[in-house]
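Per reviewer request, we include the raw input and output of the structure prediction for the construct analysed in the revised manuscript.
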Amino acid sequence: MLSIYSWNVNGIRAVVKKETFQSFMAEHQPDILCLQETKAEQGQAILELPDYLEYWNSSQTKKGYSGTAIFTKTEPLAVVNDIPDDIAKASGLLADGYGDANKEGRVIAAEYDDFFVVTCYTPNAKDGLARIDLRQKWDAAMTTYCADLQKKKPVIYCGDMNVAHTEDDLANPKPNIGKKGFSNEERSGFDTWLAAGFIDTLRLFKTGNGNYTWWSHFANARARNVGWRIDYFLVSEALKSQVQDAAIHADVLGSDHCPISVILDA
């Protein structure tokens, strides 16, 4: 079996300082771990992980912002950071008033013998959907990128997608319709992944609401499980039969997000 985890740590240095990262690694021992919102460069967090190779993509434009990483027990054949320029340009993905999202360390693709693992920290659409144009172009570029990779071998895509896909994916859907994270534009972007042949792994095992991965710091939201599912594992249709489990690890603290995982037949 192969275990792959994804976690928006909301600052790797903070979860290491709290020692929640170390306890998580000791308990779960993922074969591959994908992180988002690391807010650091390699070496800024003191990690003792002798069984893992580390691959980092840190923001080129703002220090301590965004960022992704992959920790893996098996050396990849190749690792590529960011959305390839040709795909970004074809999708119209350019810098906006907030900056160049493709230079913020948001994407890592690792190629293995039988599949690609792609982790991504999707840009937030911002209050009032101020960044929705950029967001739509980002979604188009990422879907195109992974669909192209999928032509070579199956893809396992994971990360903070910053969208609740359906009303079952957030505790209070009605008042959030049309707002960031639950706009028609963002939800349609998720639909494009499904149309491209990707499977939402959690929904192979769980239906209905209550399965959340992010909670506000306000109003005791996490303890009350008033949250959103905005972190996902999507896999190519070709891998569907190999997915043995998909889980949300809400008991793991340290971030406003919790880890998620998939188990595949090796």
